[in-house]
Amino acid sequence: MITVERIELFLVRLPLVHEFETSSHRKGHLDHILVRITDADGAVGWGESASPSDPYYCGENVETCWLMLRDYFGPALLGRPWETPDQAAACLRQFQGNRFARAALDIACWDLASRRLGVSVATALGGTARDVPAGVSLGIEPTIDALLDQVAGHVGHGYRRVKLKIRPGWDVEPTRRVRASFPDIGLQVDANGAYDGSQPDDEVFARLDELNLLMIEQPFEETDLLGHALLQQRLQTPVCLDEAITTVGLARAALALRACRVINIKVSRLGGLGPAKQVHDLCRAHGVPAWCGGMHEFGVGRAANIALASLPGFTLPSDVSGSDKYFARDVVEPPIRAVAGRVPVPAERPGLGHEVVWSEVADHVLRTAELAAGQ
Fold first, then answer.
1. Helix (H, G, I), strand (E, B), or coil: what is residue 136?
2. Is residue 352 in a domain?
3. Which residues fall within 8 angstroms of residue 67, CB to CB, at 6 or more apart?
4. Of 163, 266, 277, 325, which is the active-site residue?
5. Are residues 363 and 252 in the same domain?
6. Which of 44, 46, 180, 190 is deepest in the core (most CB within 10 A)?
7. Are residues 202 and 72 part of one domain?
8. 350 lies in some domain
9. Catalytic annotation present for 163
């Protein structure tokens, strides 16, 4: 049995090497919460809450995650014995929502439990791949030429799948120009719900449908499964859902409604590795292509994504690119790097397979909190 006796929270800020713009906002740095849990024997596990700083992508943000971890989730886990990460997750069952906050503790429990067993998280999950194909996600740039330069740089480093952020007014033309310049790459677009499903711009989607895209990701708001289903009926290009898939139940509903033909599985959005694996298993059982999405995680969360992406149901390149694409200095060793567009899975190293570098955390920490059993 494992009993967590101490939980430490660290709010850490890392600057981005290149500013990133989506349909809602632009950012030059990321604030994420790192979590360190320690059990009664002194063994340690690390997790990460990769929530956005502001409620654009979803209703959660850094402050809500800090509150939930400090005042609710952390105290609920402390002092409670468990054998498996799923049993640890059950300690939080009485609470609703707040999945980005849950993910931090869930990842930490998988890391701790796997280290105690002397196996990798990838192995514990049932992963089989020894490296995973990586894609890159590129934001909205000031000009199309600047976007083309970004694509060229990443294609030159071996990435064969590129995702472009789009929004009304920045959609067909930049995508057309990228496709014309790079006819052989896997290309997809992501709207982050920027379009109106009740009055869809059929001309925009019809023109995107002509560009041989891998998928069109989350065109409408997260609750509009019907709008996505109606759009998918009109398109040859697969619709992919991201923000809409926050639970296994919603994934089942989306597949039953034929609201998508691809699902983006995110550890953070689903509340941890356990529920993310459940959605993976659902997609695999239905023969639905899946890929592992990312939230610009630091090394801890990125390592969790890589472990998940090693599962056999991930048939499309995942957002597990090298962390040097985003950060000049990350918080883990060895650094996560892509080689010829593929990222190795540390299947022979215990836990997440990467060790947190305390000096990097200390250099970038904004706030800390500590919880102990019996407090």
1. strand
2. no
3. none
4. 266
5. no
6. 46
7. no
8. no
9. no
* 348: nearest Cα among 144, 118, 12, 3: 118
State the Cα torsion 70-75-81-83 to the nearest 10°.
-30
Q: What pLDDT shows up at residue 64?
A: 96
Distance of CA 148 to the CA centre of its chain: 25
Residues 368 and 301 grouped into a single domain: no
Q: Which DSSP helix (H) or strand (E) runs through 252?
A: helix 248-257
Provide the pLDDT for residue 27: 67
In angstroms, the CA 358 to CA 300 distance is 12
Residues counted in the chain: 375
pLDDT at 22: 63
Same domain, yes or no: 80 and 144: no
Neighbours of 76 (CB within 10 A): 15
What domain range includes position 49?
2-118+357-372
Q: For residue 4, give every residue at least 6 positions away whose Cβ sits within 8 Å of its Cβ, in sequence order, or none.
A: 37, 38, 39, 77, 78, 79, 80, 88, 109, 112, 373
Backbone angles phi and psi of 334, in degrees to 5 = -65, 155
User: Would you call 266 a catalytic residue per the annotation?
Assistant: yes
Query: What CA–CA distance (Å, rounded) separates 185 from 162?
Result: 7
Name the catalytic one among 27, 163, 165, 325.
165
Tokens 């990838």 locate to 122
Do residues 66 and 156 share a domain? no
Partnered with residue 31 across adjacent β-strands are 13
Neighbours of 203 (CB within 10 A): 9
Task: Identify whether the C-beta of residue 341 lies closer than 8 Å to the C-beta of residue 157.
Answer: yes
Closest CA to 179 of 206, 202, 147, 153: 147
My answer on whether 113 and 170 are in the same domain is no
Report the number of distinct structural domains present in the chain.
Answer: 2
Q: What is the mean pLDDT of each run of 10 residues along the chain (375 residues)?
A: 96 83 67 97 96 86 97 97 96 96 98 97 96 90 94 89 94 97 95 90 93 97 96 97 96 97 97 98 97 93 97 92 84 91 92 96 96 84
Phi and psi for 87 in degrees, rounded to 5?
Answer: -70, -35
Nearest partner of 127 among 17, 297, 245, 280, judged by Cα: 280
* Same-domain check for residues 66 and 193: no
Asked if 233 and 281 sit in the same domain, the reply is yes
**What's the confidence (pLDDT) of residue 25?**
61
Q: Comparing C-alpha atoms, which of 101, 69, 60 is closest to residue 267?
A: 101
Residues 6+ apart with CB under 8 A from 242: 190, 192, 217, 218, 264, 266, 269, 293
